[in-house]
C-alpha cells in the first residue's frame, strides 16, 4: 500500500484532532460522566478527551479485532478484564476509539453498554464510509488506511507471550 493510499496522522495533528473532537462534544451539550476507551488506539483518544472535557473517570475495554494491516479476526473479542456493568450503571458514557472502520468493535462496546447506562455516544478520530456504526462525534471521514503515530513504527520488542491471564 503506497503512502498516497494512506491517511497520515502525526502527533501534532492528533493534538489538534483531540481538541476539535472535544469541542464537538462540548458544543453538542453532552456531558459524559465517564469516558470508556477501546484499547489500544482509543487510549490516546480517551486521554485527550478526558483532559479537554475535564472528565477524570476513564475506563478501558480491551477488544481485539485487528491482527495486521487490513487483517482482522472474524469478529471482535473482548479481552479481560471487562468492566463490571455496575461501574457503568446509569452513567452518560462517551466511548472513545481511534477509528470506526467496519464498526464491529464499536458496536460490540456500545451494545455492551446500552443496557446499563443512561446514554452512550461514540467519539472517534476517523470514521470510514462502510462503518456500521455512525458515531456522534467524528473528527474526519476517510476511506483510506490510516497511519496513526502510535502504531506506524514496529514495536521495539516483539513479544511472543501475548496470552493474558484472567
Automatic annotation (TrEMBL):
A Pfam family for this UniProt protein? Pribosyltran
User: Recorded GO terms, molecular function?
Assistant: glycosyltransferase activity
> What InterPro entries does the database record attribute to this sequence?
PRTase-like, PRTase_dom
Q: Where is the Phosphoribosyltransferase domain?
A: 7-152
Sorted UniProt keywords = Glycosyltransferase, Transferase
Q: What is the name of the protein in this document?
A: Phosphoribosyltransferase
Instruction: Say which species the protein is native to.
Output: Actinomadura logoneensis
Amino acid at each position: 500500500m503506497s503512502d498516497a493510499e494512506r491517511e497520515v496522522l502525526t502527533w501534532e495533528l492528533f493534538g489538534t484532532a483531540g481538541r476539535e473532537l472535544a469541542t464537538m462534544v462540548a458544543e453538542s451539550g453532552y456531558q459524559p460522566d465517564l469516558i470508556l476507551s477501546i484499547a489500544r488506539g482509543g487510549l490516546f483518544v480517551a486521554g485527550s478527551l478526558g483532559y479537554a472535557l475535564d472528565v477524570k473517570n476513564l475506563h478501558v475495554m480491551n477488544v481485539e479485532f485487528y491482527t495486521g494491516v487490513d487483517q482482522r479476526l472474524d469478529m471482535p473479542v473482548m479481552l479481560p478484564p471487562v468492566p463490571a456493568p455496575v461501574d457503568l450503571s446509569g452513567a452518560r458514557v462517551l466511548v472513545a476509539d481511534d477509528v470506526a472502520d467496519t464498526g464491529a468493535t464499536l458496536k460490540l462496546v456500545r451494545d455492551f453498554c446500552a443496557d446499563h447506562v443512561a446514554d452512550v455516544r461514540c467519539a472517534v478520530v476517523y470514521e470510514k464510509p462502510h462503518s456500521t456504526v455512525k458515531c456522534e462525534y467524528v473528527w474526519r471521514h476517510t476511506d483510506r488506511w490510516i497511519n496513526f503515530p502510535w502504531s506506524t513504527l514496529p514495536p521495539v520488542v516483539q513479544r511472543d507471550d501475548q496470552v493474558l491471564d484472567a
